[in-house]
Amino acid sequence: MAGIEPALPAPAHTNDPRVTPASAGPAAGTSADGPSTAGAPQDGTGPTAPGTAADLSPVDRLAAVQDRLAGWISDLSTLHDLTEQLARTRTLDDALRELLRAGAFLVGARRGLVVLAPQDGLGPETTVGLGLGHAEIGHIETVPRRALSYARILDGLPEPGAGDDAAAEARTEIAEPDIPGEKDLDPRLREVAARLGYAASYAVPLTAGPAGRIGAAVWLYDEPAEPADRRRHLVGLYRAHAAEHLAGLLELHRSRQTARTLREELLPRRLPRIPGVRLAVRHATGPRGGGDWYDALPLPDGALGLAVGSVTGSGPSAVAAMGRLRASLRAYAVMEGEDPVAVLSDLELLMRLTEPARSATALFAFTEPPPGAPGGPPAAPLPGGPGGPAPRKMVLAGAGHCPPLVLGDLRAEYVETSLSAPLGMLACWEAPSVEIEPAPGETVLLYSDGLLHRTGEPMDRAFARLHTAAAGVPRASRRDPEAVVDHIVRTLLPQGLDDPSAEEDVVLLAAYFEE
Q: Is the pLDDT of residue 115 over 50?
């Protein structure tokens, strides 16, 4: 069966202990999942039929009980394996896919879909399919909503002609065992079912404790069919556990989205356009929301300030502290940006006075105005004259932050910055600044230590890997800072920036100096 782990044991088909082995077979009218007339309960009011419990020897009775116990153990083992796999999922999307896969295994279906639609209206709302592509899900969604079993569950609609008790049951689960043959179903539903090749469906709600209804799932059968009571019982036990797990992931997802939105509002919406410099950035937030940040600040006369940093801690409080720190640095950069040491010194004093329980790393770089601008180097010589474009001077200072990396056709090397403590760690922070001159055609890379931590390597090896990745940027891509940062991210982080298992924030800021 597509999408089902072959290692999982199939749920055992157990026999009624009152039925002899001979009468429990298909010839006696029994099936693995269906009821058996030969094994029906006896109420003692009629004659005792041959092959009932009265005709079984003690040995046969014991064997039948052992068979029933073996079936129970098999079912419990199956549920344990499936719930354990579900518990290992860490994102809503993965959990929804695992729910579909396990549910299809339990009810004996091959395809299905799950709709996440929390009743509180706060979202997110999404649809995930098993064995169904986007086009096929789109076909199903063209069926009138009142005709879709899972939609009636989501809307709390009763079955046509059902009383109160029956309506409550209809909202619990809805089976449509023969879609082509059922005349009362919507014609559009039969048309879509025929086009997609399914003939029956079984839909159940997903309800969890205080959260209430969070969605519904429906599984599709290729032939007319309906899950037997045992299968319904098993999937009921499983979905009760799955709904609680989904509710927990839903709250986590919402909190992450809130933190991500807050961070996005606190960070630059777009990078500035500075004459002679092109910028590119890649940024990702860990699942708990950390305090890594970056900034690119246009300064008077065409100068440019670049900053990266990280605040200790995680969660909303760290995000808020990051926003305050970044805003303060911008103010100091406007007033005294040409002196990065003064900028970080003022920032450290502010932190010590207003946030004594926190520390932070930071790096600030001041890039002088372009050639010919006030305060900048001399203008480039006229065409045909001696020499070429003058390099632009960059002055930078760091407080416990990773050193920048300069990448060009002739070099890929780290900037030798002086060792200094993070902000807030000493009574008075100060460290000498460093001056570099990136040549036209070179790129300066600023980054947070999360980029290194996400590699899973010790720091010395992570630095070496970053150097190798930068040096390996194809020459044709070195004039494009977007291509440079993409190459480095792909090389260092094969799982990508959105890896849900990664805990660290990532910042990678590139400044390319045009020729």
A: yes
168, amino acid identity: A
**Six-digit token pair at 248?**
């927990």
- Tokens standing for 94? 């993965």
Q: What percent of the chain has pLDDT over 70?
A: 81
Specify the pTM: 0.62
Tell me the backbone φ, ψ of residue 71, rounded to 5 degrees: -65, -45
State CA 115 to chain mean position distance: 17
Task: Return the H-helix or E-strand segment holding 325.
Answer: helix 316-336
User: Which ranges of 56-202 does DSSP label H, i.e. alpha helix?
Assistant: 58-87, 92-107, 134-141, 149-155, 164-172, 187-196
- What are 125's two structure tokens? 């709302």
What is the rounded (10 degree) CA torsion for 141, 142, 143, 146? 70
User: What's the alpha-carbon Rg for the chain, to the nearest Å?
Assistant: 33
**What is the tens place of the pLDDT at every residue in 186-229?**
999 999 999 999 999 999 999 988 888 999 999 999 999 999 99
Question: Could you tell me which residues are beta bridge partners of residue 406?
Answer: 413, 444
Return the H-helix or E-strand segment holding 304: strand 304-314
Q: Distance between CA 311 and CA 294 in Å, rounded?
A: 12
- Compute how many other C-beta atoms are within 10 angstroms of the C-beta atom of residue 386: 6
Q: pLDDT by residue (tens digit) across 290-324?
A: 788 999 999 988 899 999 999 988 777 888 888 89
Q: Which residues contact 276 (CB under 8 A, 6 or more apart)?
A: 302, 370, 371, 392, 513, 514
Residue 258's pLDDT is: 78
| The pair of three-digit structure tokens given for residue 321, joined into one six-digit string | 């502290």
Residue with tokens 């570099």: 436
Q: Which element (helix H / strand E) includes 280?
A: strand 277-284
Q: What's the rounded mean pLDDT across residues 83-97?
A: 92
At 234-252, the pLDDT tens digits run 999 999 999 999 999 998 8
Most confidently predicted of 53-67, 365-379, 412-426, 471-485: 471-485
The whole-angstrom separation of Cα 509 and Cα 443 is 10
Q: Which two tokens stand for residue 503?
A: 């805990």
**Amino acid occupying residue 380:** A
**Which of 349, 344, 385, 384 is CA-nearest to residue 365?**
344
Widest pairwise Cα distance in the chain: 118
H or E element that contains 254: helix 229-266
CA distance 319 to 270: 19
How many CB atoms are located within 10 Å of the residue 388 CB?
Answer: 11
Q: Does the pLDDT value for residue 177 go beyond 60? A: yes
